[in-house]
Amino acid sequence: MGPILICYGMPGSASIFTWQLVKRIAILGGLSVATLSDEVKGKDTPEDTVDPVSEDRLKLIEEAIGDRCAVVRTHGGMTPYAKALVDQGRAQVFVSCRDLRNVALSLIEPDEKRRATGGDDDGETRDARDSIEMLQDAVRRLQSWVDGCDPLMISYDSASFDIGKTIAQIAARLEVDVRVDDVLGDKKGSVIPFNRGFRNRYATEMDKDTSRLFLRSFRDYYRAYFPEVLPLATSHLLGAPAEAAATHWHKFEKSGAGPFRWSAVDQVQWPNVALKDGLNRIAVPFFREVSGGFAKRCSLSVEGVEGKTTLVGNAIVAEFDVLESCVCTVTLKTPPPLRPCDIVKSADDRRLGLAIPVV
């Protein structure tokens, strides 16, 4: 049974071009590639396009191609049978992606042209923000392939502006040798050049507030695939208070790294933290924890809104995207403090949480 090469692409990510590249590289690399018939892919659908990649449709493809391979183009998400094929080595996945701000701008253009010629107004994307809900669905589908199938990720910018590298990556994944000139040349069967957009067009065509809305709405997507465009975070290092009378803290103690105080309750607060407009990274360092794994169960929140909290070395860290600069209360929530005498042989009957340095 030949392999099925599945190309997933979100709208506006050069997914047709990526599918063409994969198919052309497979052919030039010596693989026998089948083109799907209407009976297999469905009538009135574009060449090699299958949506969704259901078990029934994939079984039809397997039966039709025999020992050849097929390059399937889809906008649908991963399905259990597609994952099973990948797990068995009978399928590979290629995923095309793009900065979602540029995707949104590209989606406006067809509607503007239709509007200019008196076309139907139904379902138009008049503003980049109108595409957010649709892009959320597209990102969920993309992530399903990433989480389940270890795809080769191909960015729009890579396909547009570093085509040689992209061809090499695809060829390596397929374990074939091809020449870039043969893939892109004038020979019959070479790929069709696509209408490339400008790099980072959002920088000149999208207002700052909308750009920030996309970065905030799709934070995890940008972290995973386009971390270089995320703004640098304003850092805040919070420690134990220097005021001797501060409540919720035990007395000062000394260590080689400096003075510290044990937290005494399961919620300690910093009431006057000045957060800036944009991304804020809050870190609470600690010297010790009362028991193993205590720090991993802590969380940080700003004005009651909990952030995605992680443990980075000996620091509890969370990031918060703030729309307007403000002075806020930051809360560190911990598990219930424990008495060392209840855990190990110790005369210390204080309830302790984290040993936090005085900053």
Overview of this protein structure:
The chain is α/β, with parallel strands linked by helices and 359 residues long. It has 2 domains: 4-229, Rossmann fold; 234-357, Jelly Rolls, CATH 2.60.120. Helices cover 33% and strands 24% of the residues. The strands form 4 sheets. Strands 2-3-1-4-5 form a 5-stranded parallel β-sheet, with helices on both faces. The protein has a 4-stranded mixed β-sheet with strand order 6-10-15-14, with no helix packed on it. β12 (299-302) and β13 (305-306) form a beta hairpin.
- Tell me the count of domains: 2
Q: What does the average pLDDT come to? A: 89
CATH fourth-tier homologous superfamily of the largest domain: P-loop containing nucleotide triphosphate hydrolases
Order of helices and strands: EHEHHEHEHHEHHHHHHEEEEEEEEEEEHE
Q: Any idea what the CATH architecture of the largest domain is? A: 3-Layer(aba) Sandwich
What is the CATH topology classification name of the largest domain?
Answer: Rossmann fold
Q: Which parts are unreliable, with pLDDT below 50 for 5 consecutive residues or more?
A: 113-117
Percentage of residues assigned to helices? 25-40%
**Count, helices:** 13
How large is the share of residues in beta strands?
15-25%
Report the end-to-end length measured between terminal Cα atoms. Answer: 64 Å
Radius of gyration: 27 Å
CATH class value of the largest domain: Alpha Beta
Shape: elongated
Structural class: alpha/beta
Tell me how many strands there are: 17
Strand order of the largest sheet: 2-3-1-4-5
Main sheet properties: 5 strands, parallel
